Amino acid sequence: MKGNIYIVPRWSGNEHSDWYDWFKKEVESNYDYSVQALNLPHWNSPTVADATNYLVREIPMPDESTILIGHSVGCLAILHYLEEIMSRNSDVKIGGLLLVAGWFDVDEPWDTAQPWLDNEDLSYGLFRKNILQKRVIVSDNDPFTSDYEANAVLWKDRLGAEVTLCPGKSHFNSSVEPDVMAEFRNMIHESPTV
User: Fold this and answer.
1) 3-state DSSP assignment of residue 113
2) Angle in degrees, CA 37, 25, 77, rounded to 5
């Protein structure tokens, strides 16, 4: 059965930003997955409610063949989406999360980022239980989260994620990001258990 991958972009990103087109081409040429990068509404000034409502409409009920990929704030948008989906069906199982340049906090929050920082009360226990693969990629020179070690600990503690440090990758904004592809390959070649 063909799997589905959805990419939720970074702040102000769209379906063609950064590495998304390259990743889509590579995956669809070499693996049995369909990749859809999304264009979220008002993504220059994203709100939690708009993002969640959009993702609920655009992503059918995920399953074990679904991989959700977030980039920066897109990682938190995915978590809020999962909170909503799992409030409707707490038994839903999801194949994987690949979170690129994910953060729970930023060094210098701006006004429109503030609502995204209220993320401590999400259903992390349910996420840990119902998501088969959870991987986060961070860099040691991300301009938004200088304390990458503390950031990594939060992803491990809250989500039970495997965190990979990729030195010198900043915020993963290049048009080609081999580290993202490497983590995707690792994810699909492991045999997940719930």
Assistant:
1) helix
2) 20
Q: Which long-range contacts (CB under 8 A, 24 or more apart) does 158-161 make?
A: 158/104, 158/122, 158/124, 159/97, 159/124, 159/127, 159/128, 159/131, 159/134, 160/127, 160/128, 160/134, 161/97, 161/99, 161/134, 161/135, 161/136
- The CATH number linked to 24 is 3.40.50.1820
Burial class from Cβ neighbours inside 10 Å (0-12, 13-18, 19+) for residue 124 reads middle
The alpha-helical segments, DSSP class H, found in the chain are 20-30, 48-58, 73-88, 124-130, 148-159, 178-189
Per-residue model confidence (pLDDT) at position 151: 95
Query: Could you give the number of structural domains in the chain?
Result: 1
Mean model confidence pLDDT for the chain: 94
- pTM comes to 0.95
Structural domain including 50 reads 3-189
C-alpha dist (Å) from residue 24 to 71, 133, 137, 158: 14, 20, 18, 29
Mean pLDDT across 100-126: 93
Task: Find the distance separating the first CA and the last CA of the chain, reported in whole Å.
Answer: 20
* Degrees, nearest 5: CA angle 116-123-67: 80
